[in-house]
Automatic annotation (TrEMBL):
Record lineage: Bacteria, Bacillati, Bacillota, Bacilli, Bacillales
Catalytic residues as annotated in Swiss-Prot or TrEMBL: E249
Keyword Oxidoreductase: yes
Domain of life: Bacteria
Chain ranges passing through the membrane: none
Entry protein name: Aldehyde dehydrogenase family protein
Protein family membership: Belongs to the aldehyde dehydrogenase family.
Molecular function (Gene Ontology), one example: oxidoreductase activity, acting on the aldehyde or oxo group of donors, NAD or NADP as acceptor
Organism: Psychrobacillus vulpis
Gene3D superfamilies in alphabetical order: Aldehyde Dehydrogenase, Chain A, domain 1 (3.40.605.10), Aldehyde Dehydrogenase, Chain A, domain 2 (3.40.309.10)
Record keywords: Oxidoreductase
InterPro entries to which the protein is assigned, alphabetical: Ald_DH/histidinol_DH, Ald_DH_C, Ald_DH_CS_GLU, Ald_DH_N, Aldehyde_DH_dom
Pfam family, one: Aldedh
Amino acid sequence: MKQIPMLINGEWVGNETNEWLPVFNPSNGQQIAEIVRGNKEHVNAAVAAAQVAYERDEWKKVKPFERGQLLINLANHIRENAEQWSKLECEDVGKPISQARADVEAAARYFEFYGGAADKVMGDTIPIEEGILNATVLEPLGVTVHIIPWNYPLQIISRSVAAAIATGNAVIVKSAEDTPLTAHALSEWFAASNLPKGIFQHVTGIGPDVGGPLASHPNIQHVTFTGSLKTGVSVMKAAAENVVPVTLELGGKSPNIVFADANEERALEGVVRAIIQNAGQTCSAGSRLLIEEGYKEEFLSKLTTKFNELTIGPGSEDYDIGPILNKRQYDQIMKKIEVAKSDGKIISGGEAITIDGYEGGFYIQPTIIDGLEHGHSLAQEEIFGPVLTVFPFKDVEEAIRLANSTDYGLVAGIWTQNIDVAHYAASKVKSGQVFINNYGAAGGIQMPFGGYKKSGIGREKGFVALRNYTQIKNIAVKFSI
Ligand code: ADP
């Protein structure tokens, strides 16, 4: 069995005295690895090592462009070995291999993008008065913690770790207990690189054992968390005790708003892809279809045809939809589908299926639910599976009202040929990203990503995310002769 140790202070940590936790391949339910069940002592050791590493000249004297070069080397390594990385992610998360390949390319792009940005993080000179030179300097924060969810591990680690290292921090990654493989592969690369020990560390284990102590540790300077709303709130509370800033990405209930004048084929394709990607286990999934009333029956009939054509099966064979992560996730999705059967109407899918030869995996048909009240919990809460809920609207005002009537505000899609309607709706929708006549635009490495309302705090991705990992020092110089 492949054993995955932690990387703490440049050493591999994990031996017979440690407790180990199993890791499964969601496609067939078979165990593929085990991770160390980390604890508070491991967290304390990692934070202490990060503090020392951060302060040492060995890291402080690395020039910004050199930090960038290291990250670009990693990007190149990932690209050169893309198929291996993709297989790892596919096996670990269960996602279709083509989607794993897209994740791997996105990871390479993050390291490349932030590697290129490392020597372009600049402050301002601010006019005060004659005889004073006032400048701001963007300094790293120190020790940054990155708590990672299980659904897009490689991408989500890469986006924040790349930005934090580019700006000169010492990072500690806590990977998700279900999907640690690519985090470990990154650890192996960093351990073999010339990055000083303690600047990249990886701790594994259960959230409350490891993530909690990390978030509440008094000697860290930032937490980046992606995951559930409930855990995000607890991370924020823990960090608040030490006045440590957080960047939170907590999910969504994102609408695709389809007007009757939309380009039908593009809208159909967009709506389908937005909900089936990673079997709907995506925080930015387009999980609500808001459809113009008079167009509803026609659009839904075509959408149902598309749903019925989707293929389901193990990630390695690249069907449209892969397995659900595990039984826990599967049970919570199926429970919601059962509720929909009584409170609404299933117009496509709605059943679990078994795949020959992959009986240990959990597979669910792509499902469309109609007929729910918009206030229903299924319209308000994440389902985190390939399940789309449908609601009609009369006019643009009602579409906007519905779009905005959940606690979340991560992404919105707007499908119309009318430029006035498109821009009007985009200006009124309360979400961190708005896509007009597309959904997701090529991965969006450069686009700020994050949420309004309970979808989170702050933005990841893009140039703006570098600010998460820096603080401003203002230096005023008075001079005279
Ligand atoms: P999910 O319910 O989808 O697994 P979580 O939000 O619980 O999502 O998990 C996301 C990440 O947060 C995982 O790495 C998990 O181990 C970690 N985590 C879980 N509980 C806590 C906690 N109390 N404090 C910090 N991190 C946690």
